[in-house]
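From the pipeline queue, job 12 of 40. The input is one protein chain; the requested action is below.

Action: predict structure.
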Amino acid sequence: MQVVQEPPAAQPRRQETRVSLEVLRVGYCNHPECVAMRGGSLRSVEFPALVGLIRHPSRGYLLYDTGYAEHFFRATRKLPECLYARVTPVHLKPEETLLRQLADRGIQASDIDTICISHFHADHIAGLRDFPRARLLAMRAEVQTVRRMGRLQRLQRAFLQELLPLDLDERLEFVEDCAVLDPGPRLHPFQQAYDLLGDQSLLGIDLPGHTRSQLGLVGCDERLGSFFLIGDAAWSRRALQEDRKPMAITSLVFDNRRRYDQTFDQLAQLLSEPAAPHLIPSHCLATWQELFA
């Protein structure tokens, strides 16, 4: 008789190791506000590409995504990929490039230990090739999904194959291989987290819907306190506060609209709690201006 082994039970969290978080604006695109938030204005507004720069006491520097980079413009020069750049005009000033902002802080590309990839949309991974020594950490289900896509499907889902490092397989590690933790009541209603570094300093949370298995990142900053980088699970904190989900047309680029709405509702519930962490969407200009500008 075959014995089916149950997955290991989630372990309780211990006192977290504090890290330092800075969020950088690495380019931006423009869209009508109403697309990202029902009832919003028809006017075109700025959606920054935000990158988390994290300093860990023993692991050094980590990134949450990379934002835009010059690689994006090269990857969208020809058909059909050029349609992406036409539908979503991208702006990247020289002083806003990630390499330039890191250099301004005395950080070299080789100093980056790990890049946590929220998902593989171009505005989140365009700079991966600039960090050839970094370990890459992503959700396994996310990677498997993009690998199955054809060229036109990749374009529809905002994924550009040319942005991936040629040695991706050699450097890629999967979040699901990390220890599973019970994140505790402070992250309710989320019931499972991954211990990304083995010391509970950074927890990975699966935020499905926008893509198959988007990675959110929870930690505790020395200045801010608890934070939760939520990628594109919501495009603004205001949308969560006012329960204003994106327009239906956005479902064309979502992996699963029903799961997106469930994740959105979970985040809105968490945000309503008095002790909620700082929720930081990857394209929320107001949050960036309030906490980091």
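Job complete. Residues 257-271 form the longest helix (15 residues).
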